[in-house]
Design a protein that fits this description.
The complex is a heterodimer of chains A (376) and B (424). Chain A is α+β, with helices and mostly antiparallel strands. Chain A folds into 3 domains: 114 residues, Beta-Lactamase, CATH 3.30.450; 158 residues, Alpha-Beta Plaits, CATH 3.30.70; 91 residues, Orthogonal Bundle (Arc Repressor Mutant, subunit A), CATH 1.10.10.2840. Chain A is 55% helix and 17% strand. In chain A, the strands form 2 sheets. Chain A has a 5-stranded mixed sheet. In chain A, helix 1 packs parallel to helix 3. Chain A is elongated and about 90 Å long. Chain B is an alpha+beta fold and 424 residues long. Chain B has 2 domains: 99 residues, Glutamine synthetase, N-terminal domain (Ubiquitin-like (UB roll)), CATH 3.10.20.70; 297 residues, 2-Layer Sandwich (Creatine Kinase, Chain A, domain 2). Helix content of chain B is 37%, strand content 20%. Chain B has 14 helices and 14 strands. In chain B, strands 7, 8, 9, 10, 11, 12, 13 and 14 form an 8-stranded mixed sheet that branches. In chain B, strands 1, 2, 3, 4, 5 and 6 form a 6-stranded mixed sheet that branches. In chain B, a hairpin with a 2-residue loop joins strand 5 and strand 6. In chain B, helix 3 packs parallel to helix 9, helix 6 packs across helix 9 and helix 7 runs antiparallel to helix 9. The N and C termini of chain B lie far apart (63 Å). The chains are: A alpha+beta (376), B alpha+beta (424). The interface between A and B is medium-sized, with 21 and 21 residues.
């Protein structure tokens, strides 16, 4: 392919884009020039557009260098997917490469423009939601619709901070990109806003599984950052699942969890509000109602198990603490063998999700029992 | 008795007085096929000069007859534990090539090699162990024992036969980790030691041949049919994946995510017969939902609790599958999970059979296909699993299985006679 032909192709791309042609039109132009089939796929190798002749495979994934030549569709750090040409057997792919890359760049510009236009308007929705600007969920939903934000019923909020010794601006950008990628599995739209030094992700959790995955993805972020050789140290907090209009509370809980994690663990860790147990109460202060709710929520799994199986796990735990963790005395009080007490303590850990060997978890259980005695 | 050099194979054959060598390959259904050659032709065979008519093997070459080349893998040379007249008999597992020496796209063994190579970046150091269940019958479907899980059975020909099968495999250089009586009377399990994925599939192919041969010597029939008896446990082929030393919990979660995400589509390959779907019902701890668990015995994927969990068990495949293709699609699914950072949701603590519709929906739990037809539709819609098979195998497998399903659909079953013949 001569330089003149390449320039001519670039001009053709510009004409197609200027006349409003999107990825499909640019793919068609490329297919005409390459003499084969063209596949445009997103970052997950899902089809976006196809063009040209011949029998196209379902995906070009894994075909690069064989039946196909594939290049990324990217603009700066943003990746939009893959552009592949599937041409005839005797095609000189190296000669095609300049027009393939030109077409990929033109498609990237189109896709970037599509996504950037609404970004500011979308961000304003999330900021208003966190500022409690909506009177009710109908108002929030209508505004989301007007701004093109796809919303769901429930969310998990994640507050993240990157401690970078050098180049904090770059670290912030890398964190934003890492976060957007970590939560891209979600059904519904991810909200990303900056609050002080923290980046807050409002992750849609339409179902329980989405909430579970959001929490897991958040917990894995430091490892993902390390694997990518990002130099910052990541700290964070994760809220419980909250409804759309409770996102402001979720963000506050995530920020509190972040602050507690920094104090308790010294940073470098993502802490979940639910797992921090008593610390959010101690951090933010609480009225009697909140204390009661905390005690009930903490002891609920043990009580439910006792009710269902006619066991004495809650009583065993109370005796274990009240006897100064003396298993022999607790066993005598319960009129069981001490091995039975050990067995029950293991069950308590499993069912409550709190390890009795952990001082943090023990504090939570002790406090729940104390509040239960005082307030109920 | 493994060797990696052609000259060693020739010497071994001579040293052990081998008279015939079977050049073994798998068709698309994973059934062992072979061309037997006198030992005098071994050198020619090792040089890739033995051909066979590819047009006569189902799913290999359509339209015209084509001489295809058998390319033996010298490392697979092994002596069969039975003799051939006054000399020994050996086997070599083969890849299939086109007449011009290029790899044949329909060769299951080559497909697995390609899948292993593709997955090697996402899953370095991955090892596989297969746990194969099967029945030993004596005439029809009568069983030689009344044993159950892990039973000792005195005067049990089934147990004697199973021990002989294990001994035969070991004599061929195959490492067996354990063997035991399974749930149903006459049902047994043989667990292979961990090895590379290709060796794992090779071992399964060998087991089916050896088990049938050895069992026959005891007057028994070995069957790897997934569900030979309506009221007893079906036979599974649990696939144990051991992630490499470098793998952490994150990798484990992504692998589980990939296996679950593609489970509906991999079912067509891992459970390839109409009979397979009579095993995948809510009984005998067979998996029916796309869910993972640390403890539940009937979850699709099980990850035993560990500080750094690297061991993942995929429980749906059955021993009628083509082990090369089953491992190829499972590796493709697992590697896709890593590539796309797919998370599997939370692990399920209890029995999957207890879940109601709402719980499954909330937890994002899907249902495995209930028939071969449904499974093929799922396969059609999954580009990752199709890519793991390659276009040729996907179409050949699909055509063959649709025809099989249509035959089955048209057949009138004994159950229908029992239910309707006198009633209407």
């Amino acid at each position: 392919m001569t330089p003149d032909q390449i320039v001519e192709f670039a001009e053709a791309c510009a004409r197609v884009a200027a006349s409003g042609g999107g990825a499909k039109a640019l793919a068609t132009l490329l297919a005409e020039r390459a003499g084969g089939g063209v596949l445009v796929e997103d970052v997950d190798w899902r089809p976006v557009a196809t063009a040209g002749k011949g029998s196209l495979p379902a995906t070009a994934r894994g075909l690069n260098g064989g039946r196909a030549r594939t290049v990324p569709i990217a603009a700066g750090d943003a990746s939009f997917g893959w552009l592949s040409v599937i041409a005839e057997h005797d095609t000189d792919y190296d000669a095609l490469l300049p027009v393939l890359r030109l077409a990929a760049s033109a498609i990237a510009v189109e896709l970037a423009r599509d996504s950037a236009g609404g970004r500011g308007r979308k961000r304003a929705f999330w900021e208003r939601l966190v500022d409690r600007a909506y009177a009710d969920s109908t108002a929030a939903r209508e505004d989301a619709l007007a701004r093109g934000v796809a919303i769901v019923n429930n969310y998990v909020c994640v507050a993240l901070e990157a401690d970078a010794d050098e180049d904090p601006a770059n670290a912030g950008e890398a964190l934003r990109s890492l976060t957007a990628e970590a939560f891209r599995f979600s059904e519904g739209e991810l909200g990303l806003i900056e609050r002080g030094a923290a980046l807050v992700a409002i992750v849609p959790a339409a179902r329980e599984v989405d909430a579970e995955n959001a929490k897991t993805a958040a917990t894995l972020l430091p490892k993902t950052a390390a694997k990518r050789h990002l130099t910052f140290r990541l700290s964070g907090g994760i809220s419980s699942v909250v409804a759309l209009l409770e996102v402001a509370r979720g963000v506050a809980d995530a920020e509190a969890s972040l602050a507690i994690a920094r104090r308790i663990y010294g940073g470098g860790r993502i802490a979940s509000y639910g797992e921090l147990g008593a610390y959010p109460l101690l951090h933010g202060g609480a009225d009697a109602e909140a204390l009661r709710a905390f005690a009930e929520a903490t002891l609920a799994p043990l009580r439910a198990y006792d009710d269902k199986h006619q066991t004495e796990l809650e009583r065993t735990l109370r005796l274990y603490f009240s006897t100064g963790e003396n298993v022999k005395t607790a066993a005598a009080e319960l009129n069981v063998h001490r091995h039975t007490v050990f067995y029950r303590l293991r069950q308590i850990s499993e069912i409550s999700g709190r390890t009795l060997e952990s001082p943090h978890d023990q504090l939570t259980l002790r406090l729940a029992i104390a509040i239960d005695a005082l307030h109920t | 008795m493994h060797s990696t050099h052609k000259r060693d194979v020739i010497k071994l054959a001579k040293d052990h007085n081998v008279r015939f060598v079977r050049l073994v390959f798998a068709d698309i259904f994973g059934v062992s096929k072979n061309v037997s050659i006198p030992v005098s032709e071994l050198e020619a065979a090792l040089a890739g000069r033995v051909t066979f008519d590819g047009g006569s093997i189902d799913g290999f070459v359509r339209g015209e007859e084509l001489d295809m080349v058998l390319r033996p893998d010298p490392a697979s040379f092994a002596l069969y534990p039975w003799s051939s007249g006054d000399g020994a008999e050996a086997r070599l597992l083969c890849d299939i090539e086109m007449p011009d020496g290029s790899p044949f796209e329909g060769c299951p063994r080559t497909t697995l090699k390609r899948a292993v190579e593709r997955a090697s970046e996402a899953l370095p150091g991955l090892q596989i162990a297969l746990e194969a269940e099967f029945y030993l019958f004596e005439g029809g479907t009568a069983t030689p024992d009344v044993g159950s899980y892990f039973d000792f059975s005195a005067n049990d020909r089934g147990e004697d036969a199973r021990n002989a099968i294990v001994a035969a495999l070991q004599s061929m250089g195959i490492r067996v980790a354990s063997a035991h009586h399974e749930h149903g009377p006459g049902q047994h399990e043989i667990d292979f030691a961990y090895g590379d994925p290709l060796a794992a599939a090779d071992n399964m192919l060998t087991l089916r041949t050896v088990a049938k041969h050895v069992a026959a010597g005891f007057g028994l029939d070995a069957t790897f049919m997934p569900k030979p008896l309506e009221d007893r446990a079906g036979s599974g082929l649990h696939v144990e994946l051991l992630l490499g030393e470098e793998a952490d919990e994150q990798t484990m979660l992504y692998v589980v995510g990939g296996l679950l995400d593609h489970a509906a589509a991999t079912t067509a390959i891992c459970n390839p017969t109409v009979n397979s779907y009579k095993r995948l019902v809510a009984a005998w701890d067979a998996p029916i939902y796309t869910v993972w668990s640390e403890r539940s015995a009937n979850a699709l994927v099980r990850v035993p609790p560990a500080e750094r969990p690297r061991h993942i068990e995929m429980r749906s495949p059955d021993p009628a599958c083509n082990p090369y293709l089953a491992l190829a699609v499972l590796l493709g699914a697992a590697a896709d999970g890593v590539a796309r950072s797919l998370l599997p949701g939370g692990s399920l603590p209890g029995s999957t059979y207890d879940l109601n519709d709402r719980e499954r929906r909330e937890r994002g739990i899907g249902t495995l296909p209930k028939s071969l037809r449904q499974a093929i539709t799922e396969l059609d819609n999954d580009t990752v699993v199709r890519a793991a098979l390659g276009d040729h195998l996907y179409h050949a497998f699909r055509d063959a299985k649709l025809a099989e399903y249509e035959q089955y659909r048209r057949a009138v079953h004994p159950w229908e006679h029992r239910a309707y013949l006198r009633l209407y």
